[in-house]
């Protein structure tokens, strides 16, 4: 019943249906959202991304981050999984399956594996399962900042930095100007604006999601105009879905086993599993627009993270309920044993 409840909650999420609608609109009205089109996506999106990361900075609690500083083993594990283990899994798959998977989709999986963790769902799931929330906030926030530099660097290792690749220097400058700068400005303005935006959290979340939907729409518009989807066929979507499901299953198994091997208590284990397996669509969509520019294959590059996002929410919500239930039973058993001993 709990599994069904979580599935219904995700299935009725307007944002997930908004991503579907964005792709449908891109199919019927590609020129409006493409670069140089009537929406002027190349300008609207830049403004939207700046505003979104400014709001992230305003909402980022430095007090909560300070509370999570002490547990270095947990922090190292999460960051290593986020930026080392994920890319190594991709590298192994590239060696084994690279010749069978379309190059742009393989690049999309690389981009997924190189992305930072997500803040909101990591913290929410950690809290609902009785996990270490300060550590989750610290690691998700740290991951978001590190990702501004590490994500484009990891991508450049594969696609190169010369002709046909990405200009790493210019890309990093763009990311700092469009992501890091507003994040820092937002954090500096937090003493003045923090309480106001905390009271209007639902509106800041709405802006965040609308900007992502604009990015998805623009990316798919450019892909439609280039003829990329027509040349790839529908099988690429099935391949992306299967690959994403396998990746999530493997990384959940690895993080769970690692947390157990490190003898983490319940709170740290929960934070480790939920922070180390998450990948951020909120950061991934804006960063993709800056890293890959108007690449006509951007829609296909974003496809894995667009599938991974709802999949991780559904699966991890079910796991969170299981963790919470098991933890309540353990606490009840411990209380009973203590009462009997007294």
Automatic annotation (TrEMBL):
Keywords, alphabetical: Membrane, Transmembrane, Transmembrane helix
Keyword Signal: no
Pfam families reported for this sequence: SBF_like
GO cellular component: plasma membrane
Transmembrane segments: 12-29, 41-60, 72-92, 104-125, 137-159, 171-189, 210-229, 235-258, 270-292, 298-320
PANTHER family linked: SODIUM_BILE ACID COTRANSPORTER 7 (PTHR18640:SF5), SOLUTE CARRIER FAMILY 10 MEMBER 7 (PTHR18640)
Protein name listed in UniProt: Transporter
Organism: Pseudomonas amygdali pv. lachrymans (Pseudomonas syringae pv. lachrymans)
């Amino acid at each position: 019943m709990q599994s069904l409840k979580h599935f219904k909650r995700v299935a009725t999420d307007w944002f997930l249906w908004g991503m579907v609608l964005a792709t449908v609109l891109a199919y019927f009205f590609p020129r409006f959202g493409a670069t140089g089109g009537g929406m002027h996506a190349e300008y609207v999106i830049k403004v939207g991304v700046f505003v979104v990361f400014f709001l992230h900075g305003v909402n980022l609690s430095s007090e909560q981050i300070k509370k999570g500083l002490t547990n270095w083993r947990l922090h190292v594990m999460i960051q290593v999984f986020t930026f080392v283990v994920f890319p190594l899994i991709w590298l192994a798959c590239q060696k084994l399956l690279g010749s069978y998977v379309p190059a742009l989709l393989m690049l999309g999986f690389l981009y997924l594996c190189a992305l930072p963790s997500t803040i909101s769902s990591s913290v929410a799931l950690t809290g609902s399962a009785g996990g270490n929330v300060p550590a989750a906030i610290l690691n998700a926030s740290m991951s978001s900042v590190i990702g501004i530099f590490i994500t484009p660097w990891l991508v450049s290792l594969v696609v190169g930095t010369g002709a046909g690749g990405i200009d790493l220097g210019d890309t990093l400058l763009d990311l700092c100007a469009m992501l890091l700068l507003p994040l820092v400005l937002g954090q500096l303005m937090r003493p003045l604006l923090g309480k106001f935006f905390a009271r209007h959290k639902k509106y800041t979340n709405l802006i965040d999601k609308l900007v992502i939907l604009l990015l998805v729409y623009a990316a798919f518009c450019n892909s439609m105009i280039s003829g990329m989807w027509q040349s790839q066929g529908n099988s690429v979507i099935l391949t992306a879905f299967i690959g994403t499901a396998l990746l999530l299953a493997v990384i959940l198994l690895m993080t769970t086993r690692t947390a157990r091997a490190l003898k983490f208590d319940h709170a740290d284990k929960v934070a480790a599993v939920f922070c180390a397996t998450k990948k951020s669509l909120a950061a991934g969509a804006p960063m993709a627009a800056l890293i890959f520019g108007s690449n006509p294959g951007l829609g296909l590059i974003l496809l894995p993270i667009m599938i991974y996002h709802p999949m991780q929410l559904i699966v991890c919500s079910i796991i969170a309920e299981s963790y919470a239930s098991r933890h309540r039973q353990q606490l009840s058993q411990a209380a009973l044993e203590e009462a009997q001993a007294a």
